[in-house]
C-alpha cells in the first residue's frame, strides 16, 4: 500500500542573529516542522510573497527596519498566516505595538525552547481552527454600537492580545469576555472569571498563583491558583481596578514572564493563559491618580472594547427584552410572557442606571406580578420619578427617594461596621458583592 506523506507545517524565521536562528531551527526540527530563514525585512517579504506559510516568527530589530513592518505586511497580504514577534526583555512598548498591529502573540528574550514551543503550538492551532460565531448570540441588538462591539470581538478572536473591556455596571462585560473566549482558539480550554474586588488582600497571592503544602497555616496540600486553573484557556479579571498596588506588581510580572511562582514555592511554572480584564471605573483616571500602575495598564489595555450603556442603544430594548423573557420563562409552559406596548414605551423612557442587569431584574419582577402572563407598566414597578415624573413639594422623589435614603443608610452602617470592607458589608447585609456594588453605584456612593 502506498503511504501518503502528510504536509509538514512551514515556519518562516526572521532574525539577523545566526546563532539565534540556529536555535530556532533546532526547535522547529524537534517539533516536526519545516522552516526557512530570513535575515532582513526585504528577505522576509520575498519569502512571504513566494509561498504559503503556516507561521512567521520575527525579531523586532532588523538591519533594514523592524518586525512591525513584517507584521503589517502579513496583515495586508497574508492574513491567514499567524505572525509572532521576539522582543527585547522588558520592551513592553514593542510587544504592545506588535499586538495592536495584528501579531498573534510575542515572546521576550532571552528565548527559551519552552516559550517557543508553547507559542508555536498555539499559533499553529489557531491557523488550523475555523472560528465560528456563537449561535446563541448573547450580545443581543442590532444598534450601531452593538454591531461595532461584535465586529471587534470577531477581529480579536484569533489574537492572543490582552483585551480590556470597559463600560458601566451591568452592560455585559463578562458576557463579552465569554464570547471572545468561545469564538477563539482557546474555546476548548477553561474560562476562569475572577472578581478582583471580592478577594481579601491577604489571600490574593495564593488565590492567583496557588501555594505549596506547608506554605502557611492551613496549607495542607498543594493547590493551584487562578493562573494554573486557566492554563490553556482564558483568565477574566473583573473589576481589575480594585487590585491593590502590591498585587498589581506581581500580576505584571506574571504577564511579562508568562510564568508564576506559588506561595511557598521556589521555581516558576510556565502558564499559557489569555488575559481579559474589565472595569466599570476609568482606568486612565486611576493611573493618573496613582491607584493603578501605568505599566500594568499598558499591558492590559492592548485592545479596548467599550460596552455601550443601555440608554445609548434604546432601539435594542424590544429585542433585548424578548430575549431575556425567553431565557427566564419556562419553555414547557403553555403560555409565554408578553411585554405589552405600554410597558415597552415606559422602558424606553427610563435611563437604566443598572443597564442590562437592571432590565433583567425588572422583567423577572414583572413576570412574577403579571396577570395572565401579560406584563404591563404597573408590573415593572417603575416609579413616576423613573419615567420622568415630577418631584414633590420638598424637592424629593416620593416613595422611591425615601426607599433610596433608607438603603443608603443601611449600606453606610454596614460599611462602618466592617471598616469599609465591601465583601464583609455585603455578607452583613445578606446580598452578593456584585449586588452591593450595583446598589452603591446606583445611589451615587462609589
Write the layout of secondary structure elements.
Elements: E1 10-14, H1 18-30, E2 34-38, H2 41-50, E3 55-59, E4 61-62, E5 65-66, H3 67-77, E6 83-87, H4 92-101, E7 105-108, H5 113-128, H6 144-156, E8 163-166, H7 173-182, E9 191-195, H8 204-209, H9 226-229, E10 234-238, H10 245-257, E11 259-260, E12 269-270, E13 274-279, H11 283-288, H12 294-300, E14 303-306, H13 317-328, E15 338-339, H14 341-348, H15 355-369, E16 374-375, H16 377-380, H17 399-417, H18 422-429, H19 433-442
Parallel strand pairs: 1-2, 1-3, 3-6, 6-7, 8-13, 8-14, 9-10, 10-13, 15-16
Antiparallel strand pairs: 4-5, 11-12
Helix pairs in contact: 2-3, 13-15, 17-18, 18-19
Brief description of this entry?
The protein has about 450 residues and is of the alpha/beta class.
Structure description:
The protein has 446 residues and is of the alpha/beta class. The protein folds into 3 domains: 10-128, Response regulator (Rossmann fold, 3-Layer(aba) Sandwich), CATH 3.40.50.2300; 144-306, Rossmann fold, CATH 3.40.50; 310-380, Helicase, Ruva Protein, domain 3, CATH 1.10.8.60. The protein has helices at residues 18-30, 41-50, 67-77, 92-101, 113-128, 144-156, 173-182, 204-209, 226-229, 245-257, 283-288, 294-300, 317-328, 341-348, 355-369, 377-380, 399-417, 422-429, 433-442; strands at 10-14, 34-38, 55-59, 61-62, 65-66, 83-87, 105-108, 163-166, 191-195, 234-238, 259-260, 269-270, 274-279, 303-306, 338-339, 374-375. The strands form 5 sheets. Strands 2-1-3-6-7 form a 5-stranded parallel sheet, sandwiched between helices. A 5-stranded parallel sheet has the order 9-10-13-8-14. A two-stranded antiparallel sheet has the order 4-5. The longest helix is centred in the last third of the chain and has 19 residues, at 399-417. It starts with 9 loop residues before the first strand and ends with a helix. 34% of the residues are buried. Residues 1-6, 130-137 and 384-397 have low confidence and may be disordered.
Amino acid at each position: 500500500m502506498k503511504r501518503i506523506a502528510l504536509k509538514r507545517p512551514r515556519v518562516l524565521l526572521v532574525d539577523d542573529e545566526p546563532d539565534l536562528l540556529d536555535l530556532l531551527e533546532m526547535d522547529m526540527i524537534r517539533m516536526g516542522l519545516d522552516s526557512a530563514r530570513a535575515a532582513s525585512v526585504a528577505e522576509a517579504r520575498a519569502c512571504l510573497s513566494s509561498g504559503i506559510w503556516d507561521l512567521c516568527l520575527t525579531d523586532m530589530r532588523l538591519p533594514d527596519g523592524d518586525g512591525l513592518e513584517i507584521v503589517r505586511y502579513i496583515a495586508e497580504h497574508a492574513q491567514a498566516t499567524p505572525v509572532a514577534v521576539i522582543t527585547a526583555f522588558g520592551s513592553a512598548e514593542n510587544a504592545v505595538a506588535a499586538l495592536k498591529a495584528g501579531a498573534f502573540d510575542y515572546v521576550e528574550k532571552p528565548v527559551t525552547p519552552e516559550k517557543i514551543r508553547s507559542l508555536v503550538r498555539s499559533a499553529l492551532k489557531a491557523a488550523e481552527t475555523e472560528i465560528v460565531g456563537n449561535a446563541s448570540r448573547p450580545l443581543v441588538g442590532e444598534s450601531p454600537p452593538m454591531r461595532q462591539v461584535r465586529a471587534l470581538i470577531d477581529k480579536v478572536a484569533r489574537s492572543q492580545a490582552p483585551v480590556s473591556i470597559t463600560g458601566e455596571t451591568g452592560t455585559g462585560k463578562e458576557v463579552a469576555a465569554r464570547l471572545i473566549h468561545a469564538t477563539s482558539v482557546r474555546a476548548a480550554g477553561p474560562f476562569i472569571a475572577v472578581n478582583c474586588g471580592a478577594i481579601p488582600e491577604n489571600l490574593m497571592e495564593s488565590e492567583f498563583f496557588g501555594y505549596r503544602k506547608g506554605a502557611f497555616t492551613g496549607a495542607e496540600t498543594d493547590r493551584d491558583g487562578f493562573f494554573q486553573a486557566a492554563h490553556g484557556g482564558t483568565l477574566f479579571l473583573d473589576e481589575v481596578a480594585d487590585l491593590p498596588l502590591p498585587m498589581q506588581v506581581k500580576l505584571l510580572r506574571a504577564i511579562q514572564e508568562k510564568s508564576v511562582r506559588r506561595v511557598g514555592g521556589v521555581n516558576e511554572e510556565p502558564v499559557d493563559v489569555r488575559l481579559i480584564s474589565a472595569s466599570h471605573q476609568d482606568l486612565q483616571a486611576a493611573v493618573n491618580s496613582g491607584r493603578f500602575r501605568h505599566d500594568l495598564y499598558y499591558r492590559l489595555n492592548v485592545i479596548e472594547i467599550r460596552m455601550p450603556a443601555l440608554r445609548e442603544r434604546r432601539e435594542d430594548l424590544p429585542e433585548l427584552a424578548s430575549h431575556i423573557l425567553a431565557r427566564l420563562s419556562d419553555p414547557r409552559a403553555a403560555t409565554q410572557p408578553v411585554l405589552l406596548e405600554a410597558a415597552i414605551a415606559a422602558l424606553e423612557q427610563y435611563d437604566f442606571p443598572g443597564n442590562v442587569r437592571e432590565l433583567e431584574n425588572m422583567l423577572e419582577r414583572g413576570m412574577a406580578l403579571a396577570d395572565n402572563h401579560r406584563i404591563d407598566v404597573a408590573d415593572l414597578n417603575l416609579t413616576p420619578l423613573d419615567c420622568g415624573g415630577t418631584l414633590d413639594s420638598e424637592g424629593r422623589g416620593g416613595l422611591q427617594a425615601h426607599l433610596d435614603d433608607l438603603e443608603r443608610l443601611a449600606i453606610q452602617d454596614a460599611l462602618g461596621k466592617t471598616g469599609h470592607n465591601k465583601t464583609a458589608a455585603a455578607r452583613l447585609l445578606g446580598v452578593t458583592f456584585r449586588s452591593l456594588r450595583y446598589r452603591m453605584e446606583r445611589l451615587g456612593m462609589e
